[in-house]
Every structure is written in C-alpha cells, then in structure tokens.
Write a structure and sequence with these properties.
Blueprint lengths: L1 H10 L12 H22 L27 E4 L2 E5 L17 E5 L2 E4 L5 H9 L11 H10 L7 E4 L2 E5 L4 E3 L10 H15 L3 E2 L3 H8 L31 E2 L2 E2 L6 E7 L24 E5 L16 E4 L6 E2 L3 E2 L17 H11 L5 H15 L6 E5 L5 H6 L5 E6 L2 H11 L4 E8 L2 E7 L13 E5 L12 E7 L8 H9 L2 E11 L17 E3 L2 E3 L1 H9 L3 E16 L2 E14 L4 E4 L13 E4 L1
Length: 602
Amino acid sequence: MYDLVNQLIDSMDFSLPISQNSLAWVILMGCEHERIHLETSSVIMRMLELKHLTANAQWQPCPYSGNAPTNELMPIKGKLITLGKKDDDLTYGWDNEYGELTLDVDDFQVTKYLVSNQEYLTFVEAGGYQNQDYWTKEGQQWLAYTKALMPCFWRKQNDKYLQRNLTEEIPLPLNWPVEINYLEAKAFCQWKAITTKQNVRLPTEAEWMTLRDTIKEDLPTWQEAPGNTNLEYFASSCPIDKFEHQGIYDIIGNVWQWTESTIDGFNHFNVHPLYDDFSTPTFDGKHNLIKGGSWISTGNEAIKSSRYAFRRHFYQHAGFRYVISKTKEAPVTEINPYETSTEICQKIAQEYNPKTQYIAELVSLINTATIKNNTSKNKLLNLGCGVGRVAFELAPYFEYIDAIDFSAQTIQHAVKLQQQETVRYTTINEGDIVDFHHLSLHELNLSGRGNNILFSQGDASNLKQKFTGYNIVIMDQVLEKSYQPKQVLTNIIERLLPQGLLVIASSYCFDESITTKENWLGGIKVNGENVTGFDGLHNQLTEHFTLINQQPLTTINTLNSHQTISTLIDVTVWKKIDDIYFKVKFTRLKNKTMVDNFVFSS
C-alpha cells in the first residue's frame, strides 16, 4: 500500500492550487486525517500508565510554571459576522467547514485568560463535583458513572495535586490552562454564575470567531505561531499569560476551547463523497464545537476555519474561557431556518405535497405485499429515504426501521421532523419570487411516529456491514442515482433474510454523468436486442428472488407554480427464495419404475 500510494503521488497529474475534485485532494485528506490521529492518540497516551511510555528528547514539555494571574473580563464589541470557509480558499478543509452563515453577535465580555488550573481548583475545593445544582442532567449522569472528583488529568497525593502530561507527572502547574470536558466547563460556568450573580457561560462559535478575527495571520502566512500551537513551542500546555493579542491571551493554541455551539452544517453544506461520514454523524445535537487548536494541532486543525466537535463527555487537550452576556442562555443558532437549495426543496415538496399520491400508493402496496406473504414486520431497510416520508408512514407497522439516504441535507430535515421540529423550505413561484412553507409531523397527522427509525447518511453501493438482517428492503429511486446499480443489487441480497421482500421503485432512467453506461441495467442494446431496465433487473435478481408483483406509479415533481414533471415509476416486489431447488425428471428405468419431478432441497 505504501508503494502504491507513493507511485500514485509520483505519477498523478494535478495543478496548483489543488481543488476538491482533484485526485491529489485524496492525498491531502489522508495527511490531514493522520494529523487528527496524531492529536487524539496523544490524548489516549495521557491516560495510559507511565510504564507503557518512553519519553523522547524531541518532545519536551514546557519547563515554566507558577501561580496564575487573576482572571479579568475584557469588553468585546459585537458585530455582524459571516461563518464558513469559501470554496476558493487555498487551504485544505473538511466538508463541514464550507458554506455560509451570517449572524449578528451582541456585545459581550470575555475572560482575559483561559481558565487556569488555579482558578478551576477553587471550583473543585468548593465542592463543585459534589453539588448537583451546578451540573446539567447529562453532567449528573456522567458524574454518577465516573465518580469523578476532579479533572481526568489531575491526581491528588498526600494533599497535593499532580498533573499528568504526555510522558510524565508533575506538580499541578497552577498557571497552565485546565483541561476538562464540556460537562465540567459547563458546571464551572454555572457555579460562577450563581456565586457572582452574573450571566456566565461558554462562548458560542460566533463569539469565539469574533475574537479570532482580531488575529489577521493564519498558519499558511504567519512567520511564527501567535500561540502555543503547530508544535512550534512545547509538547505540552504552557502558562496562560505567555501569548497575548490586543490584551487577550491564548486566542489560539495552548488548549482547544469548548464552545456552547453544537456542530451542524452551514447553509449550502455538501457531504464530501470521498469521506461521506466524516461530519454527518456529529450533526445530532450531542457534539459541541472546540475551537482554536492545542499545542499539538497542526495543518487544518491549526487554521482559522477548522471545525471539530466531540461528545460532551470526551476529553481532548481542551479547556475553556467564559463570557458574560446580556442573557443567561447562549443565543440559539438556527442553521438555515429556510432551506433554499432548489434540489432539496423540490424533494421536500415532492414527498410532503398533499396532492402527491405516489407515497400513499407505495406505502399501500408495501403493506398489502406484507399481508399477502405473511412477512414479518420486525426490521425494515428504507434505502433512498429522502426526507423520511415513507419511513414515517410505515413506522407504526414495523418494530425497527433503518432509513438511509446519500444526501446529508435530506437526512438533516428528516431528523428535524423526527425530533418534532418544524422544517422550513421554499419553492419557486416565478423567477426570483419564492413561496415559504413549513411542515411538521403534527401538521401531517404523523405525531408520535419515528421513535423506531434510525436515519443515517450512507451510500447504497457501499453500505456498512451492520445494516443487515432485514425482513423487508425498500429501494425508492435508488438504482438510477447509483454509480454502481448492479453492485447495489448484489450487496442487498445478503442483507435480506430468507422469504424477505425486496421492493424496488425505479424509472430506470440512468444518467451517464452518474452511472457509466457499462453499469446501466437497461436502456441499451445487447447483440442487437433491446434490453430494458426491467430486463436487467430481472437478470440480476431471478437467481435469488421470485417476482410477485409489478405495478406502475406516477411521481410529480413541482419545478415552480406553473410547471410540474410527471415520472412513471415501475414498482416491483420480489420475494427471496428460501433454498435453491433442483428439479430432476428421471427417465423410465429398466425395472419400469418412474419417478417424476423428484425435488432436492439444497
């Protein structure tokens, strides 16, 4: 593999700057992923017993420590800020960094320094880990499980606190930043708010970016890092009063800084097909953003536009600073309150338009097939689930549903509906004039449905192995959007239990920009004969399935208030054969005995 990749690098054609559609982007992606491994591995090393590690002279920790300066608050002027990495940015970026979101940030106050070990120690010694009032419900559950009394990297011995670094344990450096998880940082802020009677909280991503904007340099352009980052100084944190910029210290580097913002895609977010599950699994409201990088952050991790998020109980080389604002709660950022992507809006309208009969007819066909064939309704796979309408309609009839779509944006909207939120979208009325719409499961008389559905972003051509053991598989307009429809069909056979049903809805309209002609199921000539999409489908499935129903349905896609497109969809229902049978018809034997249609079961 090493030789293969090197040969690829040496022989590939590419031009500078490297763009996302360049083969060289794959190499950059691999390099940046290794940088992540470098950092996360170093966190795990700090949790190992020292006997398992060997110090290295090239990785020297900071030798300076002492008492911490008293923290104070600095006023920050609010402003209108636009988040998101531009498409023409010349540095590498992960898919969640691109897009755009404009927010109005109010005036706020922020701590001059990161919270130090010494400042956090006052919280620990004030019984902060014993007082449930300071902790969120999630924090209380974490405390009950871990029995934590102090940060993970601290240890108390003979009434003295020690701190574990990469390969050594040292007396607690009071003027270094504390390293904790989000739950602990949140609890400290609550304690601080109660004791000072001020609105103390963690900063939002937008507030942190307002601070970051005061530093004009970025990794590709600075001569020397303006903070303890990029491995330019120490193999550890360092005092919180070493790197100053316009009166505030450690805006970047030293440790990552927890924010109050959960990660989500910006407007116009698109999943990158080379790593389709890098970001989307974190768009669940359970992963909070960390900003600024740490001492070991390099490459993409150390640049201004980086966006990384972790579960709230996870440890990284991460600390925090706090802000005081006009309101106690952090402002809630609605990502893309109205969906404006034409493709996504048409998909939403197509699925949830009350005038569209396609979904109702498809659901009815599926339910009828399960009843006639006495099919178990234990587990269903809905490939091409879109915004989830079919899954929500079928939810009452099945114990468990996996709903998968390649588009991360459609999945986001399906999850919003599942969480009883309102989805807002636009449709074209005429020219630049748009109509605004909103929908919820309550409005659709689907309230209470969806708790048994797991929505996932995924590629039907490359499904993870965990997606298996289904009684029914639905493939709704998946084949014509797949780059390898034959492989999709081959892979799905092993996912379906014997006697299970495979429901395929397809127009068989393949597009060469998506599917090369050699992979088309039909719409081609073979040896001068016409081969239709159904012919190709039948050839792929006939060895393992019996066709039990075939019915045409019509979908309607509204382009604008004056124009709609109707598409004929061929819906076929296939039953998986339990065993392979061989029929053997014996000829008359010499003793005049005849055995006809003798059946062997494999």
